[in-house]
Amino acid sequence: MTDSAPEPTAHHKTDIWSLVHTERAALAADLADLTGEQWTTPSLCTGLTVREVLAHIASGASLTPVRWMTGVIRCRFDFDAQVAMRLAEQLGATPAETLAGFRRIVTSTTKPPLPVMAMLGETVVHGEDIRRPLGIRRDYPIGTLTRVADHYRRSDLVVLAKGRIRGLRLVATDGPFTTGSGAPVTGPTLALIMAMTGRSGYWDELEGDGVATLRARGEVT
Questions:
Q1: Which residue ranges does the record assign to the Mycothiol-dependent maleylpyruvate isomerase metal-binding domain (predicted)?
Q2: Element housing 186 (H / E)
Q3: CA–CA distance from 72 to each of 25, 45, 52 (Å)?
Q4: Can you give the residue range of the structural domain that contains 172?
Q5: How far apart are CA 59 and CA 75, in angstroms?
Q6: Rounded distance between C-alpha atoms, residue 110 and residue 104, angstroms
Q7: Which of 67, 76, 114, 210 has the fewest CB atoms within 10 Å, i.e. is most exposed?
Q8: Residues 126 and 166 in one domain
Q9: How far apart are CA 118 and CA 17, in angstroms?
Q10: Is the separation of the CB atoms in 180 and 169 below 8 Å?
């Protein structure tokens, strides 16, 4: 893979949105029969339950650039406060309302001022933030994971990823993804993605001298 990518064409963006919608629909299906106790399970996002992460995904799919900027100004450029405010808007009074709200945005193409690939990355990563603590496994298409990994290897937007893997060589054992040079880190593409985005629960699925560096660089909060 090269170190740069051309600006996505309209057709390419449509293709990516199709993948986003597929992943959202799969997540909604996986969560259809959760118990009340399961909805309160801590997610891989520090301080958030799986229900709150689902509301967070829905909030991102409900924000136009103008609405996003309005919220930023309202929160006096406190981006964490903006995230919390928008999450609360999507949470609903019950888990059933949270899930219903998420289902309403499954096919949405609304987004804040982010690349479409960032929306796919958020859907996969936050989907795992929810699934992993619940013991739910998804058999992701390797093509989808490879595209997400390629996005994160070149980006620090929204979450530090490119900086986290600096000086390391990542090699997927289940697909074509590879990037960087330096101490090796090998493992499944999904585990590489989650490690790139700071999820410590996936380090044990990785091998190589570079894993210690990933651990030392910490996890997302």
A1: 21-110
A2: strand 183-187
A3: 29, 22, 20
A4: 145-219
A5: 16
A6: 12
A7: 76
A8: no
A9: 11
A10: yes
What pLDDT does residue 163 have? Answer: 94
Give pTM, 2 decimals. Answer: 0.87
The position carrying tokens 């399970």 is 41
For 119, the token pair is 């929306």
Using only the alpha carbons of the chain, give its radius of gyration: 17
Residue 25 sits in the same domain as residue 123 = yes
What six digits make up the tokens of 78?
Answer: 């406190």
What is the model's pLDDT at position 69? 62
Two tokens at 2? 């090269």
Residue 8 to residue 83: CA distance in whole angstroms: 27
Residue 173 in tokens: 């054992």
pLDDT of 62 reads 82
- CA-based nearest residue to 161, from 79, 210, 117, 219: 219
In whole angstroms, give the CA distance from residue 18 to residue 112: 18
- My answer on whether 20 and 87 are in the same domain is yes
Query: At 88, which helix (H) or strand (E)?
Result: helix 79-91
Residues 105 and 168 in one domain: no
How far apart are alpha carbons 216 and 63 in whole angstroms? 35
Q: Are 206 and 186 a contacting pair, CB within 8 Å?
A: yes
Strands 183-187 and 168-172 come out as parallel
Residue 5 forms part of a structural domain: no
Segment-wise mean pLDDT, segments of 10 residues, the chain, 221 residues: 49 87 98 97 94 93 69 63 73 95 95 92 97 97 97 90 96 98 97 94 94 82 45
Q: Check the CA dihedral 102-107-113-114 and report its sign.
A: positive
